[in-house]
């Protein structure tokens, strides 16, 4: 991975990152509820809105506003004027942990509900228990919500294919990416046996599907999958220092949306950037976000189209 520049934020929790193609600025949510914009050079920060919850995934809506997955409130529509409205309130259709989304050109929203059992502070519990209660949902233009995929082991990142012929969702704790064909809804495993926990997904301006790996696979967790559910539940109740604790690494990957072939696999030394959970490529520049990070990261891809 090329050198990563850090862009400090006025708070922590930049779980995802979104780029404004108009000026190259980056947007992210913070754990105090604010959604902020950072100029491309990282020197100016402005507050866009306060969701009153915990913003995670961010996407552009065709009307120029934002679609925000809020762990506390559900699926939101956030205006650049600071307005906040609920598209799918937490609790509706069983929504508990809205995590990441992708928005079609007509405004249809595809979004993940990570687990029906735990809230964000206890997300590790769901990974350990492997409850597989995660889902991929769709909100259509008339406001109706339907479920496209169930049984996901901590449903996470969501991205559309460039031609919107399919939507991808991370089955994070099962180490795979599912593909849902549109409009027929056929579900298949697109990328399997991943080397880490695939967090947020995004479609880059390069036409590739990017994924963030906050941690590599953990052999202890892999072994636990073969144990009875009661043992996994008991393990979660132990002191945190006795639980599996996957390593954290600065690692992102980009794959071809048709073949799943790996195009970029970029890693950096430990300590370069903490626990990458969000990644966004635009014009050869790659932005990083992290669940606990107090800064955004960015670097330029080598080769044609890369920017400083």
Automatic annotation (TrEMBL):
**InterPro entries per the UniProt record, alphabetical:** 6-blade_b-propeller_TolB-like, Strictosidine_synth_cons-reg
Keyword check for Glycoprotein, yes or no: yes
Family to which this protein belongs: Belongs to the strictosidine synthase family.
Protein name according to UniProt: Strictosidine synthase conserved region domain-containing protein
Q: Name one GO molecular function term.
A: hydrolase activity
Using the record's annotation, list all stretches that form the Strictosidine synthase conserved region domain. 103-179
For this protein, the record's Gene3D superfamilies field holds: TolB, C-terminal domain
**Keywords, ordered alphabetically:** Glycoprotein, Phosphoprotein
């Amino acid at each position: 991975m090329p050198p990563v520049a850090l862009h400090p934020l006025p708070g922590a929790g930049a779980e995802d990152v979104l780029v404004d193609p108009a000026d190259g600025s980056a947007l992210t949510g913070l754990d105090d509820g604010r959604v902020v914009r950072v100029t491309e050079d990282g020197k100016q920060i402005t507050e866009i809105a306060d969701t009153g919850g915990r913003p995670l995934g961010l996407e552009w809506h065709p009307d120029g506003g934002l679609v925000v997955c809020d762990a506390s409130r559900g699926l939101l529509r956030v205006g650049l004027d600071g307005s906040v409205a609920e598209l799918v309130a937490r609790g509706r259709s069983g929504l508990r942990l809205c995590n990441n989304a992708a928005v079609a050109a007509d405004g249809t929203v595809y979004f993940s509900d990570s687990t029906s059992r735990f809230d964000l502070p206890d997300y590790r519990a769901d990974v350990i228990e492997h409850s597989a209660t995660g889902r991929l949902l769709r909100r259509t233009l008339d406001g109706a919500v339907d479920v496209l995929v169930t049984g996901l082991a901590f449903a996470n990142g969501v991205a559309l294919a460039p031609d919107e012929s399919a939507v991808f969702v991370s089955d994070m704790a099962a180490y795979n990416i599912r593909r849902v064909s549109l409009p027929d809804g056929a579900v298949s495993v697109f990328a399997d046996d991943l080397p880490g926990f695939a967090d947020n997904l995004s479609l880059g301006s390069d036409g590739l599907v990017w994924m963030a790996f906050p941690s590599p696979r953990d052999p202890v967790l892999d072994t636990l999958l073969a144990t009875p559910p009661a043992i996994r539940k008991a393990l979660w109740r132990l002191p945190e220092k006795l639980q599996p604790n996957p390593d954290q690494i600065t690692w992102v990957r980009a794959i071809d949306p048709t073949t799943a072939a790996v195009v970029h696999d970029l890693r950096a030394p430990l300590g370069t950037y903490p626990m990458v959970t969000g990644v966004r490529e635009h014009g050869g520049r790659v932005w990083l976000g992290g669940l606990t990070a107090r800064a955004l990261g960015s670097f330029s891809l080598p080769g044609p189209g890369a920017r400083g």
